[in-house]
């Protein structure tokens, strides 16, 4: 007898999924219908059910297997935290995923009552428990962070009478640790220590032993040390690495091109300790290129000192890049290399890789060539000194070279700027904050970094040199590592469109997305109250830049091919590109090896992970410095902008310091607030009033915890009516308690504040 949906014998979707999962052979529509004896009208219904299961991501179709169940996540698995969505929530993906379909979206849930902390960030690897939500997305709760290893804990050692305890710096830690009295390692009260767990031996409180004493937690260097150890960043150079560096001898001219007659200069921040790039420009005297320019970019020849397979090379790959904190730098290379032999010091001979580029008067590149050279920097200038000279106030060092060196550079830059504007890279306006420390290592001031034409000049010269490296290696059919920035995903674009629609801006559908599409939106938002909001959400909509041997282009720069060549002192990717150029041009025997060429995909993935690790550590240290800076301002009120809207609360950013703090959803008021994804708002289910991404609000600082970098605010502004709210009262994204049938969010604190 034929079965249809109204027939009690018609299979449920769960039955269909179970059959497909357990099928040993081909599982097509015919096999499913035969298994459940579905005929006639029932087959029409089956077709609709299968289509729905494909659309919601449950099934996919493969020619050889028919229908297959999309990859399913186990209850507990290891995740890589790789991105944030437009609401600022961390996204993760499984470390292992065997399905041909894309892995499901996984949100990292905060610990209840504590909110997002800097301890988990992009680039971290965690063991997590997975819950599938009603809307088909997944939520992960951290069981343990794997950055330090499963059994390592970073915390503050405290004496408690006869007992001693360690208080973890990770705000997600459930409890403190009891230190075995024979395992203190001489730790003193208030010291930052690295500990490892011991067998419980019947204790309710976990036991730990101190394995390393770092410093007093009140010392200024504790802030960056916490970030270094929390993210597993290698900090101590092995003796074999130091020995190799000490034994290194300065490179000689040999067969190199002698460039010492060219007046290269370095332009860097005033506090720079190493100088890995130098520039020079002159007018092209070729009558066929009237008004054209010759631009040279010389880069420290790190490949001459860091040979493949050596101790220094292995350690550099292990680090991937230098990591920058307000109070220190964790370098990729030993100082003997980075600050001495490979630093293009003023008046000293140095080995370099140089690219000579010829541009026409409108900035279009006509040709280029690479040289392995020997150079001598004529002058070391800061960005401010170089800019002041061009603006008519040359200092003592800049005055003698103003007309002969600086003016030709600026003339060339004006042509390059024409080409840049014609190319149309993504034009985000994102203020970069600089933290100045006093003699005691505490924040003295926070200011926005200046953006001068001197910065843009060097930036554009470096971009052009990087493009030349990629083009040359492609032409030579040489393997290389690209720096790629993929186009935004359709999912992120749709999310961006929803936010823009809520402020009467639109991003067109159905066309090939280019940076100019975003620049149009950014231009419309400029000089409006939504300028910073739009810049933030456009940034969040972008894919993450990575290293890969496969060329996907660079969307943000609007370039078809791009490789990092200009900073081999601080990025391993650049060192690989240098070696590839040496090999492609037969510049020496220290080029890219066959072994390296075969492992480029593995190397690219490793250094991409190290870059994310460094970014997370740098962000964590800034969060802790800001929390320390704000500690004395607890109880004060501020005006800020809502920078993130999540299922567990609001994030508010203060304009002067850039500090972000959490307003927990439980403190918002005496009604249930739900997260409306379409409007990026938290909305009261009865009043339909709430708070939206980008709103300017007044807050009171309730808590600042320097140890964890956490800030907690109380919201003082009243909610506003939110238009375009999803219907249904309690849509996707309920808070943790509400998903399990608990009472709605709201608290006595919120109710008391409303009564005021």
Distance between the termini: 70 Å
In what range is the share of β-strand residues?
A: 25-35%
**CA-based shape:** globular
Rg (CA only): 29 Å
- Number of H- or I-type helical stretches: 18
Mean pLDDT across all amino acids: 86
Major pleated sheet: 5 strands, mixed, barrel
Taken together, the total number of domains comes to 6
Percentage of helical residues? 25-40%
Write out the strand line-up for the largest beta sheet, numbering strands in chain order. 3-4-5-7-6
Give start-end ranges of low-pLDDT stretches: 113-118, 728-756
Q: Count of DSSP E strands?
A: 34
- Secondary-structure class: alpha+beta
Topology, please?
Elements: H1 13-22, H2 29-35, H3 41-55, E1 59-62, E2 66-69, E3 76-84, E4 90-94, E5 106-108, E6 125-132, E7 138-145, E8 152-160, E9 163-168, E10 177-179, E11 191-197, E12 207-216, H4 222-230, H5 239-247, E13 257-258, E14 265-268, E15 277-283, E16 293-300, H6 311-319, E17 323-325, E18 328-330, H7 335-341, E19 349-359, E20 365-376, E21 379-382, H8 383-390, H9 402-423, E22 433-437, E23 443-448, H10 453-475, E24 482-484, H11 490-502, H12 515-525, H13 531-541, E25 546-548, H14 572-585, H15 594-598, H16 600-630, E26 637-646, E27 649-653, E28 660-664, E29 673-676, E30 681-684, E31 689-692, E32 696-705, E33 710-715, E34 720-721, H17 736-739, H18 748-755
Parallel strand pairs: 5-7, 10-12, 13-20, 14-21
Antiparallel strand pairs: 1-2, 3-4, 3-6, 4-5, 6-7, 8-9, 8-11, 9-10, 11-12, 15-16, 16-19, 17-18, 19-20, 22-23, 24-25, 26-27, 26-32, 27-28, 29-30, 30-31, 31-34, 32-33
